[in-house]
Write a structure and sequence with these properties.
Radius of gyration: 20 Å
Helix content: over 70%
Oligomer: single chain
Strand content: under 5%
CATH topology: Growth Hormone, Chain: A
CATH class: Mainly Alpha
CATH superfamily: MFS general substrate transporter like domains
Number of strands: 0
Largest sheet: none
């Protein structure tokens, strides 16, 4: 993406990709629930294998190279480490990376806890769990679609800010849902609001992180992936250890990470604005 687009346009295209990606968690849980109910849990792995083979063939046959010019540095471990050092010295990149890691961690609190909380504590069947998960995922699809329009009018930073507010509200809503009652509906609604914020935040923060490094886009993108997966791993472990007789291990990380994302956005806004002005 960084090879082809810059600024708000890059954020728009990433948001469009996010909207396409969002179809998977909307459709897949329901399909998985149907497959499990009809053919047993092994059927899901057979379908995954077929999808994987199809993806390899599509990439091999249809995906073109977007890099316009090869890097001057020879490939190797030394060049890779030098690229990482250059990128990690950037305070602006670290600000965007923090936004990415914090917001993404909340998603994995939901992914890690949702099957246990919704099925074991709230009594949903696998099929109804699929419907509930898909409903929450519609929030991400909605946020991604909104971002394709909002970023061209508001710019990267204000779109991120709008998403961060929704992350915080969704996280606080999950706390209220757990505290107020035994219904699964308020929890799913709160997570959908959080996911909507994710659809606004993630594409724009990734675009912002990659913008300063047109010559190191691959290295910067890999560090973004490390931040996402590292945050997901830590949150997933913490949630797994805390799960028990209540849904609090789901709600508390959502609220904490949603509020943390908003706090990072507020406290680093001036830093990111200066970098944006410097690039023109």
């Amino acid at each position: 993406m960084r090879d082809l687009y810059e600024g708000a346009r890059a954020g728009r295209e990433l948001a469009l990709m996010g909207a396409i990606f969002a179809l998977a968690p909307v459709i897949a849980p329901t399909v998985g629930g149907v497959l499990q109910s009809a053919f047993g849990w092994r059927a899901n792995f057979g379908v995954l294998a077929l999808i994987g083979v199809a993806a390899v063939l599509l990439v091999w046959r249809l995906l073109p190279e977007t890099l316009r010019a090869r890097a001057a540095d020879p490939p190797g471990v030394a060049a890779m480490l030098a690229a990482y050092r250059e990128i990690l010295r950037s305070r602006v990149f670290l600000a965007y990376l923090s936004l990415i890691a914090a917001s993404f961690g909340g998603v994995f609190a939901w992914i890690s806890a949702s099957s246990f909380v919704l099925q074991e504590l709230y009594g949903l069947t696998p099929l109804w769990f699929g419907f509930a998960f898909a409903t929450a995922s519609l929030g991400f699809l909605t946020g991604s679609v909104l971002a394709t329009r909002a970023v061209m009018r508001l710019g990267l930073d204000r779109t991120i800010g709008l998403g961060a507010i929704l992350l915080a509200l969704g996280g606080l809503g999950s706390l209220a849902a757990v505290w107020l009652g035994d219904s699964v509906v308020p929890i799913v609604a709160a997570v959908a609001l959080y996911a909507c914020g994710m659809g606004l935040v993630q594409p724009q923060t990734i675009a912002g992180a990659l913008m300063p490094f047109p010559h190191r886009a691959g290295a910067a993108s890999s560090l973004v992936g490390v931040a996402q997966m590292g945050s997901a791993t830590l949150v997933g472990i913490a949630v797994g250890l805390a799960l028990g007789a209540s849904a609090w291990p789901l709600a508390v990380p959502l609220a904490a990470l949603g509020l943390l994302t908003l706090l990072i956005w507020v406290t680093t806004r001036e830093l990111r604005a200066k970098a944006r002005d410097a690039r023109g």
